[in-house]
Fold this sequence. Notes:
By secondary structure, the chain is mainly alpha-helical. The protein has five helices and two strands, in the order ββααααα.
Amino acid sequence: MAFEFNGKSIETNPQGYLVNQEDWSEDLARAMAEAENIGELTDRHWDVINYLRDEYFNNRENQPNTRSIIKAMSEEWGEKIKQGDLYALFPLDPSKQGGRIAGLPESRRKGGY
Length: 113
């Protein structure tokens, strides 16, 4: 499969994850979010995306589950958040859909929470 972006064909797997992580950019993330009906990415979306990217690229390719994202974003945002707060940002699953938009490979972990 491929994702058409700026006149280029970006290769993805059948689930829409980038085959080559070097293809990722913030502009591509915005286009992917639009294609997945997320709409405009807010600061909170970017906080999750940047957290997921940091964990993957700087913590031995860790791909946090939703519970870990809740804990990290509660700390980042200075408030106790719930699972629903993350699903409001990434309705198909914060760890999986967020990871896809963050340009990460598909997680092999089972379950999102």
